[in-house]
Amino acid sequence: xxxxxxxxxxxxxxxxxxxxxxxxxxxxxxxxxxxxxxxxxxxxxxxxxxxxxxxxxxxxxxxxxxxxxxxxxxxxxxxxxxxxxxxxxxxxxxxxxxxxxxxxxxxxxxxxxxxxxxxxxxxxxxxxxxxxxxxxxxxxxxxxxxxxxxxxxxxxxxxxxxxxxxxxxxxxxxxxxxxxxxxxxxxxxxxxxxxxxxxxxxxxxxxxxxxxxxxxxxxxxxxxxxxxxxxxxxxxxxxxxxxxxxxxxxxxxxxxxxxxxxxxxxxxxxxxxxxxxxxxxxxxxxxxxxxxxxxxxxxxxxxxxxxxxxxxxxxxxxxxxxxxxxxxxxxxxxxxxxxxxxxxxxxxxxxxxxxxxxxxxxxxxxxxxxxxxxxxxxxxxxxxxxxxxxxxxxxxxxxxxxxxxxxxxxxxxxxxxxxxxxxxxxxxxxxxxxxxxxxxxxxxxxxxxxxxxxxxxxxxxxxxxxxxxxxxxxxxxxxxxxxxxxxxxxxxxxxxxxxxxxxxxxxxxxxxxxxxxxxxxxxxxxxxxxxxxxxxxxxxxx
Length: 542
What we know:
Blueprint: H1 3-17, E1 29-31, E2 40-42, H2 44-48, H3 56-66, E3 72-78, E4 82-87, H4 89-92, H5 94-102, E5 115-119, H6 131-149, E6 153-160, H7 165-180, H8 197-209, H9 218-242, E7 249-252, H10 253-258, H11 261-271, E8 275-278, E9 281-284, E10 295-298, H12 307-319, E11 324-330, H13 336-346, E12 354-359, E13 362-366, E14 369-371, H14 383-390, H15 392-400, E15 408-411, H16 412-416, H17 423-440, H18 456-466, H19 468-478, H20 481-501, H21 510-533
Helix pairs in contact: 6-15, 6-19, 7-8, 7-9, 11-12, 14-15, 17-20, 17-21, 18-20, 18-21, 19-20, 20-21
């Protein structure tokens, strides 16, 4: 058990014995930045004294009397009721044992038995990924990694919208390109797809099947749609895999429709009285729950709106036994949240069974000016363009460094700059520096107890390492990938500061060197672990 956990449990026990009705998550413990205020501080007395009719400073003193442990050298009250804890120097180094024992698993919580389905990207299989998809991919995948580390059983899912007008137009457009390859004039409507990528797909059809599908009938119509979907989806999968984003499951709207899930859901909602007719269309009474108005689910021509198959899909996901569904969607889906929560409530699920994280738009800036077009294609910058130009590491880090709910201005110059101004370079260089030090001291036995550590820079790193498991839990609770970025940046800064102020390898003082190499090794492990959560590599040389 780390010092953070031990102090939290001590504070919880003290609070309970003094009449507080609290749980461990109510106990806030922070690492202090100024050593004169101790190693850790808590505001527990200030938060709860009033409820007991007590003065916060007096209550803090009562808590201190109850908090006794050999690792605590001193505890004192500061300001209006902060409790500052000063720990034994050797108590700080106990985290090294946990890091070395657990290695890549350090920071991972025990399984908690909760199942979460997180759906993200779900781009229409009709063209290339754009930067909105890129940010959703980075955010969704990192949140999935964080939740997995926090003990949840996570399923990463991609929903393929392979029905509706957009895929009809894809099939029509691909058929037109196929006919063009046989010398026929190209005929494309305004709503069809004019992208050059369909020419290559049409050529592959001609290479494989010759003129087999020149006759326009239902068979060829269905063939072009399915072939086009599979080809476009194959490109999406490759681009995402190259971005280190892979999924556990691909669900298809066509399968949901074929299974009868949509009709079953509609019948059930009708039986419960949530469905009514108006002007030839069919509506769902979502305003009975959380929505601001009722929503159409069947058009006057008898076709489903996109909302009805989505209801069937979400019912299908919940039927698989998940405790929570998380959808990562673009910011333009704000109105979608309450209507889908309402539909789930009609099925008997809690409104809290669905959580939607909205991701704001991305703009790219280079040399101080916004870049809207790719030099390579002359079109809007696509996912593949940016990743090829800048690299996976920079895009993944920068795209989650800020809260998903805020607009992202991506600084191309900064992302490619090899200096401490670039947070990705800064973090990776800290890892490479650790690797270099360990290589230089490879012949020196490492003292994994860290017995000789204790100066300001060493203690700061030890405290930061000890806070890593809680950082993951906090990031999981808040669905906040940027917390991991912040942790990485701070740890990298502490490593660089430690290196600047201390002689790490001193062959005239091997006991201290052995302890410092242990600290370097532990920092390297945790840096690598945290960067892996972000989908960023940990180079050993730079």
